[in-house]
Write a structure and sequence with these properties.
By secondary structure, the chain is of the alpha/beta class. The longest helix has 39 residues. The termini are far apart.
Length: 456
């Protein structure tokens, strides 16, 4: 068939569609753009519906104006500050707005940067902790061989990566029924002169709960008083740093605590932006060592840059600025409150089913988890419920809790902007229906092939 005739042929009779496309070798011949588009489009139909993915924290909806702005700016390279000086200035505006939101003592004295997500932001916060510790140890003539970082056993995997990649010993404080988050309990047992810092999480990935940063800071104050060790805090606010300033305004967790040296967050989670963008801010420039910062010249001046990546998209920076301008504090409060209202509606409804015990209810960030009531059934598990819901399009993950609680399986819902109360009511009806179906089983469901619904 000639190319001209191929263009006239029905879409699925064209070369490329009328045969099985190889996925393990570079193609020899061209194909029509419409055909290549159709192949990719059709393959991704097999993915789940992003709006019904209640496992992910990552944003899946923005308004039409954001979509238009995205299409206008997807070719901008964030690192090219000379070619795109206004985008560079907007990046600067955004982290300064966050420094103000997080109560930096002086926005002018703070320093920050955008990243590709909160994981990179955490890496940069951890690097600054390590380098500050190294510099202080060198100045005192002490060894820098064995740095360690103290955190909850429920940290997101990016902190495990940080410790692995940068040769830092991770010291995990186990969570338990009595201490569901890192709360300062027994913290002195994990800290010594080689501790570069403590990570406090505003919105634990497993459950959505806040770790009490002020209590952790008080525990570190007591440790300093007894040992002389001055240990800083990095707040991993991947989710909560964009929730607490609007929904829990009186909660002290941020730069109001002097021991908090840096805060990271994810713009593409509760910042409301498509993936991927994150942010990290230091309360004062002195906590970001100069030898980690590179100078980039633009507009006849110098702009500091600190990142693991080089070329990366600038469009999400503009989307973040758009949302900051579009919503302001009042709009963000309304958006986050709506998400929390949906989370509380769902958690209340799930608790009333009778088969489950809530681990938390979504009153911190709009995320909550539950477990099967002990003794409720021997015929099914939360993995079976997850599978039943997946057949209806819902992605509601089931997974084991971290070390010391690995025998406990929970299920979790993440409520994001775009999950309306109406859709939530449909979800709750399906959870009730599928739970009732499973409760009617007269023999156990097979357990072969069960696996956690997502990875931390």
């Amino acid at each position: 068939m000639t190319e001209e005739n191929d263009e006239l042929a029905p879409v699925f009779e064209r070369a490329g569609e009328a045969s099985v496309t190889r996925h393990d070798a570079f193609p020899v011949h061209e194909m029509l753009p419409e055909t290549a588009y159709q192949i990719v489009h059709d393959e991704t139909m097999l993915d789940g519906n992003a709006r019904l993915n209640l496992a992910t924290f990552v944003g899946t909806w923005m308004d039409d104006h954001a979509d238009r702005l995205y299409a206008e700016s997807y070719d901008k390279n964030m690192i090219d500050k000379d070619e795109y000086p206004r985008t560079a200035a907007i990046e600067d505006n955004c982290w300064r707005m966050l420094a103000d939101l997080w109560h930096a003592p002086s926005v002018a004295d703070a320093v920050g940067t955008s990243t590709t997500g909160s994981s990179e932001a955490c890496m940069l916060g951890g690097l600054a902790l390590k380098r500050n510790w190294q510099n202080a140890r060198k100045a005192a003539g002490k060894s820098i061989d064995k740095p360690n970082l103290v955190m909850s056993s429920a940290v997101q995997v990016c902190w495990e990566k940080f410790c692995n990649y940068w040769d830092v010993e991770p010291r995990y404080v186990p969570i338990s029924d009595d201490h569901k988050v890192l709360d300062g309990h027994d913290l002195a047992s994990y800290i010594d002169e080689n501790t570069i810092g403590v990570v406090a999480i505003m919105g634990v990935t497993y459950t959505g709960m806040y770790e009490p940063v002020a209590e952790i800071a008080r525990a570190l104050d007591a440790i300093q008083e007894s040992t002389g060790l001055d240990v800083p805090i990095h707040v991993d606010g991947a989710s909560g740093a964009m929730i607490a300033p609007f929904l829990q305004k009186d909660l002290v967790w941020d730069f109001r605590l002097e021991r908090v040296h840096s805060i990271s967050t994810s713009g593409h989670k509760y910042g409301g932006v498509y993936p991927g963008v994150g942010w990290v801010v230091w309360r004062e420039a002195k906590w970001l060592p100069d030898d980690l910062v590179f100078k980039v010249s633009y507009l006849g001046g110098e702009m500091p840059t600190f990142a693991l990546n080089f070329s990366r998209p600038g469009a999400q920076i503009l989307l973040q600025y758009y949302l900051f301008l579009r919503l302001g504090s009042e709009g963000y409060t309304q958006m986050q409150q709506e998400a929390q209202d949906v989370a509380l509606f769902l958690s209340k409804g799930i608790a009333e089913i009778g088969a489950f015990d809530l681990w938390n209810d979504g009153s911190d960030i709009p995320v909550f988890a539950w477990q099967l009531k002990p003794g409720h059934t021997a015929n099914w598990t939360l993995y079976h419920l997850s599978d039943r819901l997946r057949m209806k399009g819902w992605l509601v993950p089931a997974y084991p809790m971290p070390d010391d609680l690995t025998d406990l399986t929970v299920q979790r819902i993440v409520v994001r902007n775009g999950l309306s109360m109406d859709i939530a009511a449909e979800l709750l009806d399906d959870i009730r229906t599928e739970t009732a179906f499973l409760d009617q089983l007269e023999s156990p469901m097979p357990v072969e092939g069960q696996h956690a619904g997502f990875h931390h």
